[in-house]
Amino acid sequence: MRFFLLIAAMVLQGCQAATPVDQSSPVDAEAEAARIEQVLSGLSERAKLLEHIHGWGVIELQWADDQGSHFEQGDLEFWIDGNERLAVRISKLGDTYFWIGTDGVEAWVFDLSDRPRRLLSGSMQAIQESAVHEGSWLSILDMIRMMRAGLGALPPPAREDVLSLGPGEDGALLLLFRDNTDSNRRVRMELSPNTWRPTQLSLLNSNGTSLITAGTRSSRTKRVVIPGRSSLASPIISAVLEVRDEAAVDTLARFAFEGMTTDLSDQPLNRIFDMDILRKSLRPEVEGPLLELENPEDDSKTH
Asked: What is the pTM of this model?
């Protein structure tokens, strides 16, 4: 089940620590500061345009466990509404298999792929604290941030959290900054200097080892539809995004986005982000705490 929490990340970045700016070379500090401000300003403008998103496409899942290697494909629909609210629906032939969401305070996973149908929930604060203190969980908060970062929809770091800015491959920029939820972690972002579109991201631990990576090896891109705005002036996103849990071998979620718009006016947001309404609609048979996904029979209740 931890793998399906990874899915939310994506939609819900590779694997080497960023190289700091060479301090042995003469550096014009004023010019460097100006360049960092330019990058942060570009990322901020892009994130504001992508603060609200409705997207859809296809998701491919690969993972391995004690029963062997697995591959699944399904339809994907997701909603981002502000900085905290995210919902992801994965379905097959119109039937919902997974519904993952958070309103910024609570988080929930409806696992409808098998019987009994389950609802697992918990507070975002508890999930985050478990990830930080136990070191074994990739929290839903992490996954939301990395998915949004992969789309270029995450607000940029504060200036004081930027550790380095340097050249990447093929003319890209390489930005390294502190994770504002855990001072021992870093985020490495490779981005286009023309569109501020991230192409590769990594969440790193204090040793520079990747925890989660997201990026693309595809050159395909799409434009986000923004009502009233010319498509040529709309943000470009990667048409394919891959998210990996680096702690789990052969674990991959590949998102192929077919469409994305910032218009949420026709979406039932009051139902999408209300766990009680979702519970009545999706009718789980068993409920339990989200932090005990690895032991789903503990402390669960059956309806």
From this structure: 0.81
Classify residue 7: in a domain, yes or no: yes
Q: Report CA-CA distances (Å) from 229 to 49, 195, 257, 262, 267.
A: 11, 16, 20, 11, 20
How far apart, in whole angstroms, are the C-alpha atoms of residue 111 and residue 119? 6
Contact partners, residue 267, CB within 8 Å, separation at least 6: 54, 79
For 141, other C-beta atoms within 10 Å of its C-beta total: 19
CB-count exposure of residue 133 (10 Å: 0-12, 13-18, 19+) = exposed
Residue numbers of the domain that contains 256: 2-156+210-296
| Type of residue numbered 218 | S
How many domains does the chain fold into?
1
Tens-binned pLDDT, residue by residue, of the chain (303 aa): 444 544 444 333 322 333 333 433 445 778 888 999 999 999 999 999 999 999 999 988 887 767 788 788 899 999 999 988 989 999 998 999 989 888 989 989 898 988 999 998 888 777 666 655 443 334 445 555 667 778 888 889 999 999 999 998 888 999 999 988 778 889 999 999 988 999 899 989 889 898 888 888 778 899 999 999 999 899 999 999 888 878 776 777 888 999 999 999 999 999 999 999 999 999 999 999 877 654 444 444 555
- Cα 191 to Cα 64, 171, 216, 237: the distances in Å are 31, 9, 12, 11
| DSSP classification of residue 232 | G
275 phi/psi in degrees, rounded to 5: -65, -35
Is residue 190 within 8 A of residue 197, CB to CB? The reply is: no
Report the CATH number at residue 251: 2.50.20.10
Q: Which two tokens stand for residue 138?
A: 């990739």
